[in-house]
Amino acid sequence: MIFADPRVKAHVAVCVIAYLIESLLEKAFDWAGMKLTARKALEQLAPLKVAGLDEFSRIVE
């Protein structure tokens, strides 16, 4: 049976978790009175860059 393959089970688990996160984000936006979907929020966040600090507190991109 194809669904017994651990890779398939892992893929399904990742998809379910992603759907859960997307649904929870949209519920949180709704509770906050924001008319925003999870996908639209991600589009708005896409231009942001993440920077970290090294052991000397210098910015590392």
Tell me about this structure:
With 61 residues, this protein is mainly α. It has one domain. The protein has helices spanning 6-31, 38-45, and strands at 52-53, 59-60. It has a two-stranded antiparallel ribbon with strand order 1-2. The longest helix has 26 residues, at 6-31. The protein is flat and about 55 Å long.
Summarize this entry quickly.
The protein is mainly alpha-helical and 61 residues long. Helices cover 56% and strands 7% of the residues. The chain has a two-stranded antiparallel sheet with strand order 1-2.
Write the layout of secondary structure elements.
Elements: H1 6-31, H2 38-45, E1 52-53, E2 59-60
Antiparallel strand pairs: 1-2
